[in-house]
Design a protein that fits this description.
two-stranded parallel ribbon, ditrans,polycis-polyprenyl diphosphate synthase [(2E,6E)-farnesyl diphosphate specific] activity, about 5% strand, mainly alpha
Length: about 110
């Protein structure tokens, strides 16, 4: 299904830091072994608790992530538009989706 995420008072640095502290604390208290630490465990420790986005639409002409879902954006496709968020409508959304559908996602892999 479709998930819309609007982050208010959220910080990606904080989310990564608190997840790291939680994992270290559990390891120090014998609740997990270092070998148990992996991406899935880290995902579970994040406070954001949202799926990794397929597409990030950045409005207002900005071309940065602004401390938003830093861990989760690793393989996300970005779409930038000059349209301001309050003016971003159905046609703008359709354009972003059509642009996304034309992309060949590699999830970090290379195609030569």
């Amino acid at each position: 299904g479709l998930h819309l995420v609007i982050a208010l008072n959220y910080g990606g640095y904080y989310d990564i830091l608190q997840a790291t502290k939680s994992i270290v604390n559990k390891a120090m208290n014998g609740l997990l072994d270092v070998e148990d630490i992996n991406k899935n465990l880290f995902d579970q420790e994040l406070e954001s608790k949202c799926p990794n986005p397929d597409l990030l639409i950045r409005t207002g002409g900005e071309q940065r992530v602004s401390n938003f879902l830093l861990w989760q954006l690793a393989y996300t496709e970005f779409y930038f538009t000059n349209t301001l968020f309050p003016d971003f409508g159905e046609e703008d959304f359709k354009e972003a989706i059509m642009n996304f559908q034309q992309r060949h996602r590699r999830f970090g892999g290379h195609t030569y």
